[in-house]
């Protein structure tokens, strides 16, 4: 795997930090998640990681981290607000002096300084919630993981670490480069919800079906649009790119899609280039539309069924590398779902991880007695 041998110390947080760490773990890195003592549940993005349970209020624990662990790790993921790690004595300036090759990744909403906000939405509606996929995961975790990999690659040449400032607002802006350029070129100048790709165009929209479900349409190119009209049995319509006619066309399409169920439309458009697909809901079990049984999903095999529940699954790592794939695709046979999806229990690896970094049994005993560390699974003696 491409990141085999890389050690990552991930301080537990929410969404973007755990996602960045999961990406690194999926591709071979040893990711050690630092959980707080007395935390009862592990993060849902913890697959493939180890968990240590520590008390960052303990100065003895901080000293051990600096002396024994920081010199031996390659990456630190900091999910906290600006200044938190500095107050703990674990800021990047201090840790880079201890380990000049360290990659220190910081994930925040707006960076280390400045502020900004964004607006998404349909015409004449309040801004919509795109879940937290844009900021937390795309602009935050994914961009952070990219920064870590770039810094690791550069370190091969310079033998030096560096600080990564992964501000979610920067990341969201970066992945929106296409929209910024479209606006500059006069292709995205209408109010929200009235442009080609933000629900303004009838050929790039979602429509409700007879059974109350939804179909997605993305027939932008004229050849695809022609197939769409043929399959909908629609003729003598206004020009596709006449924006003044878009409201009329959307009304026509909306009424047409209400004539059949989603499954019926799926069969009609199956195998065509009309860019029409069913919108499947997570955990859906309807005949012909089970997300795990969808033909493309089965062919691509990018979902893993969870061993814990029949109706649960997880997307597999992406992208796929032919020679050094992620752990799920490593070798000629995939690992089992149980191996891949298992989430570590909080603190179950504390003693074994500390011992692996050369921290003695007596030091572990002392830290445990003080309440600075805790192992939730086994006693220290059984780890030896």
UniProtKB/TrEMBL annotation:
GO cellular component terms listed in the entry, alphabetical order: mitochondrion
Record-level GO BP terms: bile acid metabolic process
Pfam families recorded: CoA_transf_3 (PF02515)
Molecular function via GO: alpha-methylacyl-CoA racemase activity
UniProt family annotation: Belongs to the CoA-transferase III family.
Protein name stated in the entry: Alpha-methylacyl-CoA racemase
């Amino acid at each position: 795997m491409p990141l085999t041998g890389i050690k990552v110390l991930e301080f537990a947080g929410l969404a973007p930090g755990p996602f960045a760490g999961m990406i690194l773990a999926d591709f071979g890195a040893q990711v050690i998640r630092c959980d707080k003592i007395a935390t009862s549940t592990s993060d849902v993005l913890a697959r493939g990681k180890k968990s240590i349970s520590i008390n960052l209020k303990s100065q003895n624990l901080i000293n051990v981290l600096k002396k024994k662990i920081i010199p031996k790790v390659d990456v630190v993921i900091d999910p906290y607000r600006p200044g938190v790690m500095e107050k703990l004595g674990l800021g990047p300036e201090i840790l880079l002096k201890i380990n000049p090759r360290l990659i220190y990744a910081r994930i925040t909403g707006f960076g280390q300084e400045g502020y900004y906000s964004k607006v998404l939405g349909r015409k004449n509606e309040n801004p919509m919630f795109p879940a937290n996929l844009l900021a937390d995961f795309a602009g935050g975790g994914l961009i952070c993981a990219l920064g870590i990999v770039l810094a690791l690659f550069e370190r091969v040449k310079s033998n030096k670490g560096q600080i990564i400032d992964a501000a979610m607002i920067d990341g969201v802006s970066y992945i929106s480069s296409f929209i910024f350029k479209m606006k500059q070129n006069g292709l995205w100048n209408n109010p929200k919800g009235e442009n080609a790709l933000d629900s303004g165009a009838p050929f790039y929209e979602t429509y409700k079906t007879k059974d109350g479900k939804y179909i997605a349409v993305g027939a932008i190119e004229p050849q695809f649009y022609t197939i769409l009209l043929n399959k909908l049995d629609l003729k003598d319509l206004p020009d596709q790119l006449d924006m003044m006619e878009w409201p009329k066309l959307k009304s026509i399409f909306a009424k047409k899609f209400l004539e059949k169920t989603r499954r019926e439309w799926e069969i009609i458009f199956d195998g065509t280039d009309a860019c029409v697909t069913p919108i499947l809901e997570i955990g859906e079990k309807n005949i012909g539309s089970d997300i795990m049984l969808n033909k493309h999903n089965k062919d691509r095999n990018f979902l893993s069924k969870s061993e814990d529940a029949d109706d649960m699954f997880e997307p597999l790592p992406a992208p796929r590398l032919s020679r050094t794939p992620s752990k799920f695709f490593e070798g000629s046979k995939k690992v089992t779902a149980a191996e891949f999806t298992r989430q570590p229990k909080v603190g179950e690896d504390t003693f074994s991880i500390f011992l692996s970094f050369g921290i003695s049994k007596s030091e572990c005993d002392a830290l445990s007695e003080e309440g600075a560390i805790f192992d939730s699974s086994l006693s220290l003696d059984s780890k030896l």
